[in-house]
Amino acid sequence: MNGGKQTIYFRNKPSVLSGYSIVGPKEAMGPLDPYFHKRLRKDDFGQKSYEKAECKLHMSAISGAIIAAGLSPTDIDVNIGGDLLNQIITSSFSARELDIPFIGMYSACSTFGQALIIGAALIDGGYVRRAACSTSSHFSTAERQYRYPLELGTQMTPTSQWTVTGAGCTILGKAGEGSNIFVESATIGKVIDFGISDANNMGAAMAPAAAQSVLQHLKDTGRDVSYYDYIVTGDLGVYGSRLFLELLESEGVHAAERHKDCGEMIFDKKQRCPQGGSGAGCSSVVFNAYFLYQMRVGSIKRILLVPTGALLSKLSSLQGETIPGIANAVSFVVEE
Amino acid sequence: MNGGKQTIYFRNKPSVLSGYSIVGPKEAMGPLDPYFHKRLRKDDFGQKSYEKAECKLHMSAISGAIIAAGLSPTDIDVNIGGDLLNQIITSSFSARELDIPFIGMYSACSTFGQALIIGAALIDGGYVRRAACSTSSHFSTAERQYRYPLELGTQMTPTSQWTVTGAGCTILGKAGEGSNIFVESATIGKVIDFGISDANNMGAAMAPAAAQSVLQHLKDTGRDVSYYDYIVTGDLGVYGSRLFLELLESEGVHAAERHKDCGEMIFDKKQRCPQGGSGAGCSSVVFNAYFLYQMRVGSIKRILLVPTGALLSKLSSLQGETIPGIANAVSFVVEE
User: Fold this and answer.
1) Where would you tag: which of A54, A241, B98, B119 has the fewest CB atoms within 10 A of its CB?
2) Residues A213 and A262 in one domain
3) Which CATH number fits the domain that encloses residue A312?
4) What phi, psi does A182 have (nearest 5°)?
């Protein structure tokens, strides 16, 4: 690749024109509440099913981001989107309403990173003017697809995370469109398997992939962790974050002081999900709400956003497969 | 976009270094048998489950294409892959074995088109040296995921197509690597819904999207159908192809003589699937086997490959949703 083994450099400064986040009621009760753009009072969003609710969330995030950028849908050349549902119906059905060319992605909870990388490359290479990069998840659709019927009231295990109900969208555009937040480089993840087979311990399944991507990013770019204000993982949760930092430590990289995890940030300890949040919407709502705000006001200058994904299906687990992980790292810089 | 409303142009001639196709026993009994690179004697490929068999198919296609290009896995910067299974486990689990950065795609049976577009853009933009674009499908994994248990022996309806058991992979590289087959431009599809709700009539669900992408491609490029030797749709089948041609006709575009459908081509009329084949592996095995061969020997100079996808899940159909379609068009040209 043009920036090392797994890393690509963007030469023409594709920039972040806007970001938008919309979350469910539980997320709105968490510590990041002031940063979110819209909060639902009820997580069914007035729809007949949770799947239709997630679809409306996804569409609202895209529309919200387009409006926040002062644009209209005809200004957007492509929507690059994904979600956790089988056949990514949330993103595809959202795209149906939008009349914008659509590229469907799946990289589990790392999808937002992948969408940003492809969006930035298409803009930077001069192929499209602007891209809407969107992902979503919904506690109730994920729970019933991956785990048990909600009506069972199944108890969470101590290592399980709470799927975030929310959707986020980032509009990327060319340099010179008035934004000073740029996508500078990105590291495309490899699928890494450490043999974890507990579907209630995704943090452990994803931590090795996150560590591999971050270490490779630093190697490819010749940077030290201190180059970034923060290394922001997607949804490793409390336990996964600890593993991630230990894996970096073992390679001589001390990142504890500069590490934040969107999954850990989104919920309060009082909210009965001690491991934190997860889901394809987790990193995208936290990035579009909190981190974009901090970069806009100048209190954060450089972050490496590393959405993390656990690659499994109900069937792969039933067939005794382990859970490989993937993590895509995207570097954002603010220039004066 | 740099080539019109939905079309992108590749300026630096990303080229096709190799293609590889591997198919199941039924496909090997069809008229394209002489062109396939490898045929299975049994469709379980010696694996314990059909899902594991599909994964082995997918990996074999990637390895086969890498070897056919005279390369080794370390020469490939990225694998861009997808399939039809929930959470695209086939492609992700293949990528686990490969140690190549992975980008996961989902666009139903149009995934191969999407993978080629992203691969070509990443090479053309100078981000990666080579990309392995791969997709697969398997009759038995698709049947039990989307329809009924195989043991039921459910009869096909007259409009239903037979999911192809097969995997294809194309290695794209930079100009000057010795190939004279180039990816010249591509049209990214929109999600189009004509209100079809019969999950056994995918051809009808996909035909409007195919027509929209082809018409927009011709408009964006200012070309007439006669520019191409063939417009090659993915898996519209017999009935869907008729609809597709009628939709083009109604816009004054006469494509009947230059149209081929991979789904129609792969099976013989005697093979008891009168509508033809379908699946994410359908267009990729037919392209990598038949069309790449014809371009290599110079009997075909220009094709527009249009893999077509029906965007549905079991759940979306149960919730009464219609089936939108998508089609991505990729233009290949042979230069002397």
Assistant:
1) B98
2) yes
3) 3.40.47.40
4) -115, 150
The number of C-beta contacts closer than 8 angstroms across A and B is 185
Question: What is the least distance, in Å, from the CA of B290 to any CA of chain A?
Answer: 27
Do B159 and B194 reside in the same domain of the chain? no
Return d(Cα A194, Cα B103) in angstroms, integer. 20
- Smallest CA–CA distance from A114 into chain B, residue: B103
- Does A86 contact B52 at a Cβ distance shorter than 8 Å? no
Q: Is B231 helix (H, G, I), strand (E, B) or coil?
A: strand
Terminal-to-terminal C-alpha distance of chain A: 28
The span from the CA of A156 to the CA of A138, in Å, is 16
Q: What amino acid occupies position A246?
A: E
ipTM > 0.90, yes or no: yes
Residues from chain B contacting residue A88 (CB–CB below 8 Å): 106
Residue of B66, B5, B85, B105 lying closest to A117 (CA atoms) = B105
In chain B, residues with a C-beta closer than 8 Å to the C-beta of A205 are: none
Assess whether A167 and A217 both reside in one domain. no
Predicted local distance difference test score (pLDDT) of residue A75: 97
Rounded CA separation B179/B226 (Å): 24
Q: How many CA atoms lie within 13 A of A148 on its CB side?
A: 8
Closest CA to B15 of B303, B246, B270, B335: B335
Of A52, A114, A314, the CB nearest to B103: A114
Domain membership of residue A258 (yes or no) is yes
Kindly list the residues from chain A whose CB atom is less than 8 angstroms away from the CB atom of residue B117: 103
Q: What's the pLDDT tens digit per position in B254-273?
A: 999 999 999 999 999 899 88
Closest-CA distance, B205 to chain A, in angstroms, reads 13
User: Considering the domain boundaries, does residue A178 fall inside one?
Assistant: no
Task: From A138, A160, A90, select the one nearest A285 (Cα to Cα).
Answer: A138
A179 falls within a domain: no
* Whole-angstrom distance, CA of residue B30 vs CA of residue B267: 5
Residue B82 sits at φ, ψ, to 5 deg, of -165, 170
Half-sphere exposure of A228 (CA within 13 A, CB side): 29
Q: Residue A9: its chain B contacts at CB < 8 A?
A: 127
Sign of the dihedral defined by the CA atoms of residues B48, B53, B54, B59, in that order: positive
Chain B: residue nearest A88 by CA? Answer: B106
Tokens coding B232: 């090659």
pLDDT tens-digit map of B134-171: 999 999 999 999 988 889 988 888 888 999 999 999 99
CA distances (Å), A307 to each of A115, A170, A299, A325, B151, in order? 11, 14, 22, 11, 41
